[in-house]
User: Fold this.
Amino acid sequence: MKKINLYVFIQIIKSCTLVFFIFVSIAWLLQISRLFSIMNNLQIELSNIIFLSIYLIPNIMNITMPFIIIFGLLLSFIKLDRDKEILAIFSLGLSIDQIRRPLVLICFFFTLLYLFLNLFFSPYIYEKYKIKEFELRNLINLSKINSSNFIKLDSKIILDFKKEDNIFKDILINYIEEGDNIIFAKTGNIEKNADNIFTFNLISGFKLNIIKNEIEKLEFENYKIEFPIQVKNKYDNFDRNTQTIFNSIKNKDYKNIFDKFFDILILLSIIIFFYFYIIKKNDFRINNILKFLSFSLLILIFQNIYKNINIDLQLFLILNLINFVLIIMLITVKKYNIL
Assistant:
């Protein structure tokens, strides 16, 4: 690689790295804030939440990779144009090949990275995240919780309470047993033994038993009730984002396979479109950049919509092909100056 090729390559890498840290840092901070808000009431240790959030980074990288490349390319070439370095390259009698070659190398590098992230690493680590999140959510220690926010102890029991100075107040229990039952107590004590049996010693409240639209009400000063809880201690993988390419092939999840395939194709198409629309024409006017940026983001938004809506494989392929054909048509138009 000639020095001028290496220089352009390094400038692109620098800009992409800067955009990478900006995008990933912002997305990671948003995700860790969400985890804090969700798990704060469960009084999970700060170190555990931070450690859990680290498992989200590969998935964040995978999601933001197309945006990192788009903004990284724009930033690097805007800087080269602003510093008159592109003009200097042409003034030296060099051709556009000096820019195209490092761009091809960038395409190759980011394609390999995106393939690795998208097909294997990101879903593999994201599955680890889901398992660890599941474990943290299900290791409920009522003695550490300040506000329950309707904890689902198992499929038939929901618990809500407030806690002040280690005293449980406004205890609400909803459970299904010979109808729908609701228990409310002003104060009380909640204990859990080694056999996963929750014992509620309740003070001053009432119990409602609803059977076939008939309501029985029992008021009490002291009431004791026990619930053996069937704890779900095994994570069931149902999230498609945790499926590596090998899992998808094994499970014959063709939609997930094509989804990852189109991700790569769309990304490469956008880079090619950038070359013909911006670089080859050496047109870095703000309106031209905004047109490229708007179109690219629109394509990526549609791509993500197709991923997340529940449609069959045939319609999914048709919509993605339309998306892909649209950008290929624009590349052809710009390459041959048809319009």
